[in-house]
Design goal:
alpha/beta; Aldehyde Dehydrogenase, Chain A, domain 1; about 20% strand; homodimer; about 400 residues; globular
Chain lengths: ~400, ~400
């Protein structure tokens, strides 16, 4: 069943991968239009999910994330439309001729079939389908059970829209069985799935990394730090920290830990406490001597709270800060606040992370903010893609070599 | 023990990764010089390996691959020297400024620590160390037990040479324990090893893919095909096939299977038989009716012989050829011989492989032949790197974002 679904995705991916930019953009427009035209179907399905969720006593926040309204579906359609305007990642290629006359072209090509395993929010269904379609990849979507009816309805609408422009509807596939067994099976579809992108919490990512035999891009684990260097501008420090921590604590680019140089700790920590009044502070012993805070455990410094909680530590030196971050961080986004160029350079050169910030909020690690137009996720691994993954990162390449009988 | 070794490699990698192009090139020159100056030490160690190999009744071919002579060590030193002239892959970076004033620099950086697990030939020790050093990566080498004394001697000479220019000798590390347990432990050094590249036969690659939890680049599995299209130039077809199969059958870019369009099979197969007189032909039933050949099993078409054996099949159409290759191939190098542009285009667009050839030998899939100067291996996966992996493919990137207090 799952094998059959992946096989038909693979078959569709060959046609999709060789289709023109125009045809793929026409398909995206059809997808956006269909979402709006058939929102009745989608909302009806969403209502079933909402009823089930209420019966299961889901939290208000989760219920809100699950709910689709006319306005939300229109916003989803708009974000599909925005993908049309992005440059075609498959248009890039470079060629060279070798002394023996063979011509080598390095050609951007889609991966083929991309599988995405994600959690509650049904908007991911349309966003992921749009980015995969634009980059020439067939997509196999496996969303969470909470949104299964919404996801099935939306994927059906999207697949049918793709078909109206002459591409196979199997370009957009949805796994209707939300059991863990089927998810595990999907992770092992070697030969059918070319790339698997998990989008969700730590336990989902962990399970995928442990079980997958298909290539995976790890996304979203963000234990991000802000370090106040001894030469930090005080107002800037507090303002950037406040934004990094509080503007949206539930996302992966939010800051979880603050490190403060000992020389400025006494002056700055009370200001931090004041600015982050609604944040629970868990500090090391030195922090607790300066401000009123709970004592942090070592575990705190490894934790991605995704909440109004901040771990704080006083460090003796820039080197200690770097060492702490490289030990406790997840390679996502790390920030130094400093007026000293040498400290900034040392920080940028030795911190091992996708994005390293000097005097700017970690919250900028985002495809839109980086100017990529959209993203399928934030990679925290070093292979293939790092940081915000745009359309180019959803492609690979092949070499096409043409000759007139050359031998070696 | 292995953890300690990987830890010191990581520590060394930070200094190496931030060293100048000049310093890394000076280190390479010192490495090349040291290999020649201390060849006595290396040859003495190699003699122990040779004695052990003889006692174990190793084949003559294997013994030859294992043997180091003055001339061979000089050739190894020359290939280290050649890496000096290659462009520094870390020199590439691009920057842009966003409307809010933050400057984003996408900076090429080393992976950090690259582990290489390889089989018999001791020249890999120096080649891999040179490419890793040039690309700013510390290397953890784990060669086969047959060459362990040679490898230890060479790694010692190389590490000491690196130290003479002021870089840590731990940039070049060798695993002295050649047990399978230690190899398996190396594959799971998450947090210490950033990339693992296996270089060797099918069973080594398989074992790495199945066991590794660190990121891996699969290399070297090459079940390559040549397809004679109905519009093939006959002489070119036979000449390219002969070169693809016979010029060096033991390497991964050698061809293992020939597919022939039914319309030209009767004319071309006798010529193939004549040209490849020293090759054992295993054909499908239709082949066996035309020329004298053993009957091929389905297994034959999945086999990478690395020997003077060729599986041959008659196909009814280009589509059948493409389907056969995408089913049986390993995504390495695939070739069509045709005078028809439409057939060539269809072949190139739908074959899923690192390198697709039109009228040229599969033997060109090689870093030198592609113009990359050197390669660490031929990737047969789609993530990160595909085909010959040069210095650029041994690096990743990070984003360095600088601002003056921007928040979101």
């Amino acid at each position: 069943m799952l094998t059959q679904l992946c096989k038909s995705a693979r078959k569709a991916s060959v046609l999709l991968g060789n289709s023109s930019t125009d045809l793929r953009n026409t398909a995206l427009q059809a997808m956006a239009n269909a979402l709006v035209e058939k929102q009745g179907e989608i909302i009806a399905a969403n209502n079933i999910d909402i009823e089930n969720a209420k019966a299961n006593g889901i939290s208000t926040a989760m219920l809100d994330r699950l709910t689709l309204t006319e306005a939300r579906i229109e916003a989803i359609a708009k974000s599909v439309e925005k993908v049309i305007a992005l440059p075609d990642p498959l248009a890039k290629s470079e060629s060279w001729v070798r002394p023996n006359g063979i011509k080598i072209t390095k050609k951007r090509v889609p991966f083929g079939v991309i599988a995405i395993i994600y959690e509650a929010r049904p908007n991911v269904t349309a966003d992921a389908a749009a980015l995969c379609l634009k980059s020439g990849n067939a997509v196999v979507l496996r969303g969470g059970k909470e949104a299964i009816n919404s996801n099935i309805a939306m994927a059906k609408v999207l697949g049918e829209a793709v078909e109206t422009v002459g591409l196979p509807k199997e370009c957009v596939q949805i796994v209707t069985d939300t059991s863990r067994e089927t998810a595990n099976q999907l992770m092992k579809m070697k030969g059918y799935v070319d790339l698997l992108i998990p989008r969700g919490g730590k336990s989902l990512i962990r399970s995928v990394v442990d079980n997958a035999t298909v290539p995976v891009i790890e996304t979203g684990a963000g234990n991000c730090h802000v370090y106040f260097d001894k030469y930090a501008d005080e107002d800037m420090a507090v303002s950037v920290l406040n934004n990094s921590k509080c503007s949206r604590p539930s996302v992966c680019n939010a800051t979880e830990s603050l490190l403060v140089h000992k020389d400025i700790a006494e002056k700055l920590l009370p200001k931090v406490k004041e600015s982050l009044a609604n944040v629970e502070i868990r500090g090391c012993e030195r922090v607790c001597k300066i401000i009123d805070a709970a004592l942090a455990t070592d575990e705190d410094f490894y934790t991605e709270y995704n909440d109004y909680i901040l771990a704080v530590k006083v460090v003796d030196s820039l080197e200690e800060a770097i060492d702490h971050i490289n030990t406790h961080g997840t390679g996502h986004s790390e920030c130094i606040i400093t007026g000293c160029d040498i400290a900034a350079e040392q920080f940028c050169n030795t911190i091992d992370a996708a994005a390293v910030y000097v005097n700017a909020s970690t919250r900028f690690t985002d495809g839109e903010e980086f100017g990529f137009g959209a993203e399928i996720g934030i990679s925290t691994q070093k292979m293939h893609a790092r940081g915000p993954m745009g359309l180019t990162e959803m492609t690979t390449y092949k070499y096409v070599v043409t000759g007139d009988g050359q031998v070696r």
